[in-house]
Specification:
alpha+beta, two-stranded antiparallel ribbon
Length: 389
């Protein structure tokens, strides 16, 4: 986190236990009448009990910590959490026993505010936080395989859902990360990439961000991540994809990856139609000529758009091979619903480029926990119908 904020000065020991670094900006003279700053708690560091006359808001931006109001249980706070502290409420906050914690602190109505520092938090009071954390992260009846497969994607990840919905986490993780994975030979990298494509089509932004991080953890390159996003545009539409693009950029920047990435386009405005049409025909054969011949004159431009835009602009790009791109398209289409005709066309396309029936069933199986049974069964029906001909 040091690259994202200035660490500041060490907090005074009469108000804090352990190493705490404070970087405060007072805006009283800038018409904001507020105080904002970052506070970094090293493991086991915390504030004394104290109050704020104007209240306080904490935005946790890194790590794991504790927050407690007098007379209430300790709360576990993690990156992304927001804590709204009422006026004059006695409270304390700090890092967990083994993790640092950084938050942004905001106080408004600064001219009316007063911080009253009270006694230090006792070790016994502080240790209640560790007990709460252990309860929130204790293992449920997860299989060893589910734990191993989950850890491969997100090492040392602490699930918020496990704290609030432990039974659901147990059921889902054992199913998605053990039972489902055991029913196909899809490698980890391909599985994660197809789930990424599926979550875009399903408009599942939270799950998508989880799998972008998983993808980068298991060796998917930043270029490959971006190519999945770009390929989604002709199938899902820019209006639905743009938020996923921005979320991807934020994750890449957080990981220190400079943007923009190297360009992957292989066509120009002059060559895009010829190149796109050639790629279409290499995948779908004479069907493309028939589509052009059968298209009404007032709709012929759509066929041309498929050739020069969908294929010429997007699918001729470097960064992913054609076999992978067809699997990604299949994943998006079966996740969208209502695109059965296109699903069947791309089942044929997948078989043409070397993705056989078992591979398609394997991908549909891996997507089942994320898209549900109806769309998975529709996909299987289309696979069975097309491969029987």
């Amino acid at each position: 986190m040091d690259s994202f904020y200035a660490k500041g000065v060490e907090a005074p020991s009469q108000y804090f236990v352990g190493k705490v670094w404070v970087n405060i900006n007072i805006n009283q003279n800038d018409n904001y009448n507020s105080m904002i700053g970052t506070v970094n708690f090293e493991p086991s560091a915390r504030t004394n009990w104290h109050t704020h006359a104007s209240g306080q808001i904490l935005f946790v931006i890194d790590g794991v910590g504790y927050y407690q109001e007098k007379g209430k249980p300790v709360q576990i706070i993690r990156k992304g959490d927001v804590v709204k502290i009422p006026k004059n409420v006695i409270h304390w906050h700090g890092a967990s026993h083994s993790n640092s914690m950084t938050h942004i602190a905001i106080v408004t109505d600064l001219d009316k505010d007063q911080t009253d520092w009270l006694e230090p938090v006792s070790d016994k009071e502080y240790d209640n936080g560790d007990q709460a954390l252990q309860e929130s992260t204790k293992a449920t009846s997860l299989t060893e395989t589910a734990i191993k497969n989950h850890h491969e994607l997100w090492p040392n990840y602490i699930s918020k859902a496990k704290q609030t919905d432990p039974e659901l986490v147990e059921v889902f993780d054992n199913f998605a990360f053990d039972e489902v994975i055991s029913h196909s030979n899809i490698d980890t990298k391909t599985r994660v990439m197809t789930i990424m494509a599926s979550t875009i089509a399903s408009q599942a932004l939270t799950e998508y961000k989880m799998f972008v991080n998983a993808a980068l953890n298991v060796g998917v390159t930043p270029v490959e991540v971006k190519e999945i996003i770009y390929q989604a545009i002709p199938y899902v539409g820019i209006a639905k994809v743009i938020d996923f693009l921005y979320a991807t950029n934020e994750i890449l920047i957080e990981r220190g990856i400079a943007l923009p990435l190297d360009g992957q386009s292989t066509t120009t405005p002059e060559t895009r139609l010829e190149a796109g049409l050639a790629l279409q025909k290499s995948i779908f054969g004479n069907m493309i000529d028939k589509l052009y011949e059968q298209s009404p004159k007032n709709q012929l431009h759509i066929q041309r758009f498929l050739s020069d835009n969908c294929f010429g602009d997007y699918l001729t790009r470097k960064g992913l091979d054609v076999k992978t791109r067809e699997l990604l398209t299949f994943s998006m289409l079966i996740s969208m619903g209502g695109a059965e005709s296109q699903v069947k066309g791309h089942i044929q396309g997948n078989i043409s480029v070397g993705n056989n029936k078992e591979t398609l069933i394997g991908v549909a199986t891996q997507l089942l926990p994320y898209i549900g049974y109806p769309r998975t069964l529709n996909a299987l029906n289309s696979i069975n119908e097309l491969t029987a001909k």
